[in-house]
Specification:
The complex is a heterodimer. Chain A is an alpha/beta fold. Helices cover about 25% and strands about 40% of the residues of chain A. Chain A is built from nine helices and 21 strands. In chain A, the strands form two sheets. In chain A, strands 1, 4, 5, 7, 8, 10, 12, 14, 16, 18 and 20 form an eleven-stranded mixed β-sheet that branches. A ten-stranded mixed β-sheet of chain A has the order 3-2-6-9-11-13-15-17-19-21, covered by helices on one side. In chain A, a hairpin with a 2-residue loop joins strand 2 and strand 3. The N and C termini of chain A lie far apart (about 45 Å). The relative contact order of chain A is 0.10. In chain B, the strands form three sheets. Chain B has a six-stranded mixed β-sheet with strand order 6-9-10-3-11-12, sandwiched between helices. The two termini of chain B are about 35 Å apart. In chain B, strand 9, helix 7 and strand 10 form a beta-alpha-beta unit. Chain B has one domain: P-loop containing nucleotide triphosphate hydrolases (Rossmann fold, 3-Layer(aba) Sandwich), CATH 3.40.50.300. The radius of gyration of chain B is 18 Å and the shape is globular. The chains are: A alpha/beta, B alpha/beta. Chains A and B meet through helix 7 and helix 8 of A and helix 2, strand 7, helix 3 and strand 8 of B.
C-alpha cells in the first residue's frame, strides 16, 4: 500500500473518531483500526488470499465517503432491480446509506430500517453492541478490519418478531467514480427476530469511468424459526472491484438460503460465511460465476458447525471464458460438539478457453466422529457427446453450446426464489450466452 | 441419394472400415447387419459427422453433394438423420424447445420462415400420435431419466418431426422389449415413403421382420462381404455369422 494512502486513511480515521457520537461504534472502530495496522492488506502469502491479490487495488488514491456526491433520483431509476415497486429499496452511495434516496415500503410494524449510528444510540443499542462485528471472530484479516475502522453511514435492519415480509429488501451499492477513484465501505447489521422471514437482494453499480473498490461487510443474525434468503447480483463494470463479506449467524434453529450470481466486474472476492450457532440449523449456499474478459471471481465459503444436527448444502458452478479466472474455496468446520452434522459441497466448472483458470479447493476440518460430509469438484469442457447429439439434429455448434451452457447455469439460477429477480438473472444469462 | 465409395476410416490409428461401397436410392430400405466390432456403428457415425474418426480414403456424396466436407448440422439440414444407439441425456434442456430449435434452424437453412407456436404444436401433436409417445416425456429434459424404450421412441419422434430424406437407425432395436420394438417399428414404417431412404443397422432379424428391408448387407471386419435381399437376413438368423466367415475364409484360401 502506498504511504500516501496510509496517511490519508489514518487522517480520515482520526477525523471520524473525533466526530463519532456513538461510544459503541467508536470502540469497535478503534479495535478495527488496531487490527488493520497490525495485519495490513492481505497478500498472497496469506493462504486465504493465495489466488487473489488485492495489493494492486491499493496502489491508487481513493476518495472515501464524505466527498462531494451528486447522485439523483434519476440515477437511481437506472439501477433499480425488477420487482422494486413491491420492495424496500435501500440506496448506498460510496458506502453510505442514503435515507433520502431510499424507499421503505414495509410498515414499521414489520421492520425497522435505521442508519446504524442511530440504532447504536437508541432503542437498538444493546442489539448493535451484542452483534455488530462478531464477524471479526472469524474473519481476522486486515481488509475486514479496514471496513470496521470506517463503520460510518451503515444501516441497521430489524425484522420484527413473527413478521413475514412480503416485500423484499433491495440494497443498491452505488459507487460514483465520475471524479475520483472511490473506496466504498458499506456496513450493515440485519437482525431477523424469531419466526420472521425476509428476502434480501444486493446489487453493485458503478457510475463513472474511474475505478471503484467496494469493501463491504454485512452481518445477518438469524433467530429461532426465522428464514433468511439473500441474493447477491454482481453485474458491474470492469473497473469495479470488491471484497464483500456476508456473515450469517444462525443463532437459533433457523433456515438460511443464499445465492451469489457473478457476471461482470474487475476483481471480486465474496466471503460467504454461515455460522451454525444453534442445534438443528439448515443452510443452502449457491453460486454461479459466468466470466469472460479479465474478470476474477473468488468465492470463499465457510460453514462453521458449532452445534449438533445442522444441515448445509453448497453448490457452486462456474463457466469461464477468455482470460477470466475463478477461485472456489469451501471450508467446512465441524466442531467437537457438532455431532450428526450433514454438510455437502459441490463445485463444477466449465472452461471455455485455454487461458481461463479455476482454482478449486475444498477444506473440511472435522472434529466430531458421527457426521456426514461430502465434497466434490469438477473442471472440464462441455459434454462433447451432448454437443454432437444436438448438432446431428441441425442445431449449429454455437447454438448447441449456448443451450448446454444455459442449462448448466439454470441449476443455480432456479434457486432464486424471488420471481422477478430470477427472471431478470435468467435473461442476463441467456443474453450473455446467446449466439449473435 | 447416398453414394458411399471405398470408404476407409480409422480411429486412433486403428483401421475400422476397410473399403465400403454402398448405393442407396430414394424409397429404399437397406439393412446393415454384422457381428460385434464389424464397423456398423462406425459407419453410422462417420455418416452423421462424428469427429473422432479419420477418413483415410474414399468419398461419400449425399444428394449429389460431397458430404464429408459438411458439418454435422449441415448434414442434418440437408436431410440426414441419425437415430442414436445410445441417445444422450441432456439435463436442463427441454425436449420441446430442443426440437423446435432444430426444426427452425433447418427451415432457416432452406430459406423458410420459422414455424409459429400454433403450427408447431399442431405438428407435434400429429407426430406424437404417429410414434405413440406420451406428451409428458416431451416437457422433460432431453432423455433425462427416460427408460431405454422411451429414449428410442423419442429418437423416432424426432425423426418424424424433422422429416429427413435419409434416416440411419443405429441399433434402434437394442434394449427394447417386444412391445416397445413393435411400437418403434410401426413408427418407422409409417415414416416410409417413396422419397425417403432408410438404413437400418442391427444385429438381429427381429426388427427386420417388421421393416421388411429391400436390401440386406453383411458387414464383417470393415467390409461389406455379402449383399442380398431380405432372405439373406433369414439365412443369417438361421446359420449365424459363422457361415459367412467360413465362406470368406474359403474364398481367401483360394
Amino acid at each position: 500500500m502506498d504511504t500516501k494512502n496510509i496517511d490519508y486513511i489514518e487522517d480520515k480515521f482520526n477525523e471520524l473518531q473525533s466526530s463519532g457520537a456513538s461510544d459503541v461504534l467508536n470502540n469497535i472502530r478503534k479495535e478495527g483500526f488496531k487490527t488493520f495496522n497490525k495485519n495490513g492488506i492481505p497478500t498472497p502469502r496469506n493462504e486465504e488470499w493465495r489466488f487473489t491479490s488485492i495489493g494492486n487495488l491499493f496502489k491508487k488514491e481513493y476518495s472515501l465517503s464524505g466527498d462531494d456526491l451528486k447522485i439523483t433520483a434519476a440515477d437511481i431509476d437506472e439501477v433499480r432491480l425488477p420487482g422494486y415497486k413491491n420492495a424496500n429499496e435501500l440506496v448506498f452511495l460510496n458506502g453510505s446509506y442514503i435515507p433520502g434516496l431510499s424507499t421503505i415500503r414495509s410498515s414499521e410494524n414489520e421492520c425497522i430500517i435505521l442508519p446504524l449510528e442511530e440504532a447504536a444510540m437508541g432503542k437498538y443499542k444493546s442489539i448493535v453492541n451484542e452483534h455488530l462485528e462478531k464477524s471479526s471472530l472469524v474473519v481476522k484479516d486486515g481488509i475486514h478490519a479496514l471496513n470496521t475502522s470506517f463503520i460510518y453511514g451503515g444501516v441497521f435492519i430489524h425484522i420484527n418478531k413473527s413478521q413475514v415480509l412480503d416485500k423484499p429488501v433491495y440494497i443498491y451499492q452505488l459507487s460514483d467514480t465520475r471524479n475520483n477513484h472511490t473506496l466504498s465501505q458499506p456496513r450493515s447489521l440485519i437482525y431477523v427476530d424469531e419466526s420472521a422471514k425476509v428476502q434480501l437482494a444486493e446489487s453493485f453499480i458503478t457510475i463513472g469511468a474511474m475505478d471503484s473498490f467496494t469493501n463491504g461487510v454485512m452481518e445477518i443474525v438469524v433467530n429461532t424459526n426465522a428464514i433468511v434468503e439473500y441474493y447477491k447480483i454482481q453485474n458491474d463494470v470492469v473497473n469495479a472491484s470488491q471484497v464483500t463479506t456476508t456473515h450469517i449467524r444462525q443463532i437459533g434453529k433457523s433456515y438460511g438460503h443464499a445465492v451469489t450470481i457473478s457476471l461482470n466486474g474487475g476483481l471480486i472476492r465474496n466471503n460467504m460465511n454461515i455460522i451454525m450457532e444453534a442445534e438443528g440449523n439448515e443452510a443452502h449456499l449457491y453460486g454461479l460465476y459466468l466470466l469472460n474478459g479479465n474478470t476474477h471471481v473468488d468465492n470463499h465459503t465457510l460453514v462453521d458447525n458449532t452445534k449438533p444436527n445442522c444441515f448445509s448444502n453448497e453448490f457452486y458452478k462456474g463457466i469461464l471464458d477468455d482470460n477470466s479466472s475463478g477461485v472456489f474455496s469451501g471450508k467446512i468446520f465441524v466442531r467437537p460438539d457438532a455431532q450428526k452434522t450433514n454438510a455437502y459441497q459441490s463445485n463444477k466448472n466449465i472452461l471455455l478457453s485455454d487461458d481461463a483458470t479455476i482454482n478449486t479447493k475444498p477444506q473440511l476440518e472435522i472434529f466430531a466422529d458421527d457426521v456426514k460430509c461430502s465434497h466434490g469438484c469438477t473442471v472440464g469442457q462441455l459434454d462433447e457427446e451432448a454437443l454432437f447429439y444436438l448438432r446431428t439434429r441441425g442445431i449449429s455448434k454455437e447454438h448447441a453450446q449456448s443451450m448446454l451452457l444455459t442449462a448448466f447455469a439454470e441449476d443455480v439460477v432456479m434457486q432464486i426464489k424471488n420471481e422477478p429477480l430470477r427472471t431478470y438473472v435468467e435473461k442476463l444469462i441467456v443474453d450473455r450466452l446467446a449466439v449473435n | 441419394m447416398l453414394s458411399i465409395k471405398n470408404i476407409h476410416a480409422s480411429v486412433e490409428g486403428k483401421q475400422i472400415l476397410k473399403g465400403i461401397d454402398l448405393e442407396v436410392k430414394a424409397g429404399e430400405v437397406h439393412a446393415i447387419m454384422g457381428p460385434n466390432g464389424s464397423g456398423k456403428s462406425t459407419l453410422a457415425s462417420i455418416l452423421a459427422g462424428r469427429e473422432d474418426y479419420e477418413i483415410t480414403e474414399g468419398s461419400v456424396s449425399f444428394l449429389g453433394k460431397d458430404m464429408l466436407d459438411m458439418s454435422p448440422e449441415d448434414r442434418a439440414r440437408e436431410g440426414l438423420f441419425l437415430a442414436f444407439q445410445y441417445p444422450v441425456e441432456i439435463p436442463g434442456v427441454s425436449t420441446t424447445n430442443f426440437i423446435k430449435t432444430a426444426l427452425n434452424e433447418k427451415r432457416k437453412y432452406h430459406g423458410q420462415e420459422p414455424l409459429d407456436a400454433v403450427s408447431f404444436l399442431k405438428l407435434m401433436k400429429e407426430k406424437m400420435q404417429l410414434v405413440e409417445i406420451d406428451k409428458s416425456l416431451l416437457t422433460r429434459s432431453i432423455n433425462e431419466g427416460f427408460s431405454g424404450g422411451e429414449k428410442k421412441r423419442n429418437e423416432i419422434f424426432q425423426m418424424a418431426m424433422l422429416e429427413p430424406k435419409l434416416a440411419i437407425l443405429d441399433e434402434t432395436d437394442s434394449g427394447l422389449d417386444i412391445d416397445a420394438l413393435r411400437i418403434v417399428a410401426n413408427g418407422v414404417n409409417k415414416l416410409r415413403n417413396k422419397e425417403r431412404a432408410i438404413i437400418v443397422i442391427t444385429h438381429y432379424q427381429r426388427l427386420l421382420d417388421y421393416l421388411q428391408p429391400d436390401f440386406v448387407h453383411v458387414l464383417v471386419n470393415g467390409r461389406i462381404v455379402k449383399s442380398g435381399t431380405k432372405e439373406l437376413a433369414l439365412e443369417l438368423e438361421e446359420k449365424g455369422y459363422d457361415f459367412i466367415k467360413d465362406e470368406l475364409s474359403l474364398a481367401e484360401a483360394v
